[in-house]
Amino acid sequence: MEQLLSCQNLTKRYGYKTALDSINLTIERGRIIGLLGPNGSGKTTLIKLINGLLAPTEGLLLINGAVPGPETKKVVSYLPERTYFNSWMKVTDILNFFCDFYSDFDRNRAMEMLHRLNIDEKDRLSSMSKGTKEKVQLIMVMSRDADLYCLDEPIGGVDPAARDYILQTIITNYNERASVLISTHLISDIENVLDDVIFIQNGHIRLTTSVDEIREQEGKSVDALFREVFRC
Amino acid sequence: MLGKLIKHEFRAVNRLMLPLHLGLIVITIIGRFYVQFVMNREHVNYSSYSLRMWEGIVDVMLVSAYVIALIAIFIITWLYLDILRFRKNLFTDEGYLMHTLPASAAQHIFTKLAVSAVWQIADGILIGLSVFAMVLNKSIIEDFGYFWNELWTSFPQIFGVPAGIGIPVFLLSALVNTIAGTLIIYMCIAIGHSFNDHKVLASIGIYMGYKFVSNLISSIVVALSGINSFGTRNVNSIFFGVGVYNSGLNETAYFWLNTGFSLVFSLVLGVGAFVLTNHFMTKRLNLE
After folding, report:
1. Is B95 within 8 Å of chain A by CB?
2. How do residues A118-147 score in pLDDT, each as one tens digit?
3. What is the CA radius of gyration of chain A?
4. Among A205, A219, B16, B271, which is least packed, fewest CB within 10 Å?
5. What is the dihedral of CA B269, B271, B277, B279, to 10 degrees?
6. Do B93 and A84 touch (CB under 8 A)?
7. What does the domain layout of chain B look like in residue ranges?
8. What are the two backbone dihedrals, phi and then psi, of residue A76, each rounded to the nearest 5 degrees?
9. Rounded to a whole number, what is the distance in Å from the CA of B257 to chain A's nearest CA?
10. With pLDDT > 70 as the criterion, what percentage of chain A qualifies?
C-alpha cells in the first residue's frame, strides 16, 4: 500500500528531556490509526512534528515524501487539544476563514454537520460551551478533503451522544486515500473504528499492529491490551 | 496566500484600530468646538474673578485630557500591533491554527509587518492632523506662506540639501527605522517564545539585552565618527574633529553620510531581525 507518512530515526528533545527517541514509523493510506499511550508518552509531540509546529532535533519526517511545510499543510488537517479560534468569531467567520485558506474545505459538508448538531452559524464562539466549541472545531477539521487527519484528543470534552456522531462522521468522511490518526486515552470509545494501533511510551514505539491481529492473536480488546502493556 | 493573510489580519486588527481612531476623530471634533468656544469667550465681560479661575482650571484639565488621550491612542496602537497581536496570534493557542495554515513563516511575518506599518502610519498622520486641527487659527493660516518659505530657505542652510530632497529622505529614514523597530520586537518575541518557560520574561530580557548592545554600538559609532541620525554635524567626533568648523566636510556631505549610515544601519538591523524571526518561527517554534 502507498506510504502517506514516514518517520526515520525521528528524535525530539526539549533541553535534556527526550520526548521522542529515534522513532521509525510508517502510515499508509486508507487507515484509521489510534495513537495510544499514557500521559507524557510523546503523542502530542509526534502530532506537532507532523504539523510542523515543532522541528525535529534529529531524523526525518516525510508526508507524501516532503518535510512539513506549506505544501504538506495543504493536505494535513489538524485538530489540536485546545481551542484555537478567537472568541469574537462567529461560526460564519470561521467557515469563511477555512474556505479562504484551505482549497479542500467543503463548506456544505460543514454546514450539514453544524445543522445536525444544532449549532447556529450566527452564534459567537464566546457564547458557546467548551464542548460546543470543540464540536465546531472538529467539524471544521473533518470538513476538509485532506490526506491525513491528525486528531489530538478529539472526543475528550464532548458528551457521549455527540461522541458517537463525531466518530461516525470521522469514519464516513474520510476517503480511501486518506488516513486518520487519533490520539486519545478513551480507547474503549474509539476501539470499534480503529484499523491499526500505535502504542507509544516514554518516546518509544512499544507496538504497532492492526486491531484484528490483537483480537485474533491475543484474544483481547485493544483496551485490555493497553491496560496490560502500560500496567502501572 | 499573502493577500488572504493580509485581508484576514486587517479584519482582526480593525476591530480595535477602527473604533480607537474613530474615537480620536470624535475627540478632535469636540476639542475643536471647545477651542472655538474658548476663543469667543474672551469677549465676554467677567462679573467675577472666581468664575474666570474656574474656567481656567477646566481649560487646563481638558487640554491635559486631550494630550493624555493622544498619547494613549499612540501607545495602544503601537503596543497592540507590534507586541500583543503578533504574540497572541502566532505564539499562543491561536498559533495552532495560524502555523498549520498552508503559509510560510516569512508570509506570516510579512503580513503582520505590513498591517502594523499601515496602521502605524495612519495613526501618526491622524494624530498629526488632530493636533493641527486643534491649534489651527486665522493667524496660522495667514502666516503659513511665511513658514513655508522659511522652511525652504533655512533647510539647506542647516542640512546642506534642499528641503525637497531632505524631507523625503527623512521620511524614508523614519519609515525604515519604524519597520526595523517592529521587526526587532518580533525577533525578541520569537526568540523568547522558543524557551520552554517564562516566555514573556525571556522576550523582555532579550529586548533589553538587544537595547543595551545596540546603544553601546551606536554610542561608539557616534563618538568615533560624529555621525548622527539627524543629518547635522554638531556632534563631536574622534575622527573628524570637534564640531562643525574643524572638520573638512561640508553640510551636504555630512547629511548624506549621516542619513545614509542611519538608513543602512536600520536596513541591516531589519533584515537581520527578519531572518532570525523566520528561523525561530520555523526551526525553533515551541508553542505551549
Report:
1. yes
2. 999 999 999 998 888 888 998 999 999 999
3. 18
4. A219
5. -130
6. yes
7. 1-136, 145-288
8. -115, 130
9. 43
10. 100
- Per-residue pLDDT reduced to its tens digit, B11-37: 999 999 999 999 999 999 999 998 888
Query: How far is it, in rounded angstroms, from Cα A153 to Cα A74?
Result: 22
* Cα angle, residue B171 at apex, residues B169 and B176 outer, rounded to 5°: 95
> Does residue B168 sit in helix, strand or coil?
helix
Dihedral of the CA atoms A214, A218, A224, A228 (nearest 10)?
-110
Q: Which CATH number fits domain A3-229: 3.10.450.50, 3.40.50.1970, 3.40.30.10, 3.40.50.300?
A: 3.40.50.300
* Sequence-distant contacts of A160-165: CB under 8 A, at least 24 apart: A160/A189, A162/A117, A162/A131, A162/A135, A163/A189, A165/A116, A165/A117
Which residues from B are below 8 Å from A80, CB to CB?
Answer: 96
Grid coordinates in use for A170? Answer: 470521522
CB contact under 8 A, B282 and A15: no
Rounded CA separation A54/B282 (Å)? 8
In chain A, what are the domain boundaries? 3-229
Which runs of consecutive H residues, i.e. helices, occur in chain B? 2-41, 49-78, 85-91, 94-98, 105-135, 138-159, 163-192, 199-225, 243-246, 251-282
Q: Spell out which residues of chain B touch residue A153, defining contact as CB-CB under 8 Å.
A: none
Q: What is the pLDDT of residues A89-123, one digit of tens each?
A: 999 999 999 999 999 999 999 999 999 889 999 99
- Considering only CB atoms, A70 lies closest to which of B8, B102, B286, namely B102
User: ipTM, 2 decimals?
Assistant: 0.92
Sign of CA dihedral A84, A87, A88, A91: positive
Whether B236 has its CB under 8 Å from any CB of chain A: the answer is: no
User: What is the maximal distance between C-alpha atoms in chain A?
Assistant: 52
Q: Is B97 on the interface with A (CB under 8 A)?
A: yes
Is-contact B206 B188, C-beta < 8 A? Answer: yes
The whole-angstrom distance between A19's CA and the closest CA on chain B is 13
Cα(B23)–Cα(B28) distance, rounded to whole angstroms? 9
Q: Decide: helix, strand or coil at residue A103.
A: coil
Q: Is the Cβ pair A48, B8 closer than 8 Å? A: no
Report the DSSP pairing between strands A179-183 and A58-63. unpaired
Min Cα distance B129 → chain A (Å) is 32
- Judge contact between B119 and B85, C-beta under 8 A: no
Verify whether the Cβ–Cβ distance B12 to A86 is below 8 Å. Answer: yes
Q: Which of A52-66, A173-187, B172-186, B258-272 has the lowest mean pLDDT?
A: A173-187
